[in-house]
Amino acid sequence: MAVLELANISKHFGAIQAVNDVSFSLEAGEVVGLMGDNGAGKSTLVKMIAGNFRPSHGTMQLDGQDLILHKPVEARQRGIEIVHQDLALCNNLTAAANVFLGREIRRGFGPLRILDYKTMYRRAGEIFRELKSETRPRDLVKQMSGGQRQAVAIARTMLAEAKLVLMDEPTAAISVRQVAEVLALIRQLRDRGIAVILISHRMPDVFSVADRVIVMRRGRKVADKQIAASSPEEVTGLITGAIEQV
């Protein structure tokens, strides 16, 4: 059974058709690269999956159950996590505090309950080790590299036991070494059976880590191919319109 299944999803804002009749499915442990030029509809599509927008038409299912979302918190409750391009981290807090933000562990009873920092540091450390990341629970986010920040954002999705992670340009504006770290983190998610939708403009990253590539142009899906059956040249042609559809 597919983790996520979209059937004829469309979204319009007044007279503007942002997404038009898009269908695809996603299996557990599968990484799908979502590519297209600016304005192709990628972000709108992902925001519908994340609960920011309601589809104007079509249906979504998660684990075979209808997925009807009114707000992002409902998506998170169903096991859908999104890693935004700006990561939405608190720079003045530690890695562990960011991982547990909004999900803090407390001990004690009634009004005397206090934050259980020891448990949160320990669990965050376990997750970072599982991710094979050099990030340490007590490190301040403002002192971290781009790759370490991505590790913190991805650790939050693992704490939530996500079924599906949506990643928006995770390798934009970071160094080559940090890109390698982020791609390794994505592989870790895949190996844990978590499905990933990777929005990216970086062709080498998609072809390095994705199993499939979906290309959108002007709100429509123009390709859905196994990476092994495509090429960067073909995908570039599909994005620009030099190749109409495959």
Automatic annotation (TrEMBL):
Superkingdom field: Bacteria
Family the UniProt entry places it in: Belongs to the ABC transporter superfamily.
Domain ABC transporter: residue ranges: 4-243
EC supergroup of this enzyme: hydrolase
InterPro entries xrefs: AAA+_ATPase (IPR003593), ABC_carbohydrate_import_ATPase (IPR050107), ABC_transporter-like_ATP-bd (IPR003439), ABC_transporter-like_CS (IPR017871), P-loop_NTPase (IPR027417)
Keyword Nucleotide-binding: yes
Enzyme Commission code(s) on record: 3.6.3.17
Keywords tagged on the record: ATP-binding, Hydrolase, Nucleotide-binding
Protein name stated in the entry: Sugar ABC transporter, ATP-binding protein
SUPFAM superfamilies xref list: P-loop containing nucleoside triphosphate hydrolases
PROSITE patterns: ABC_TRANSPORTER_1, ABC_TRANSPORTER_2
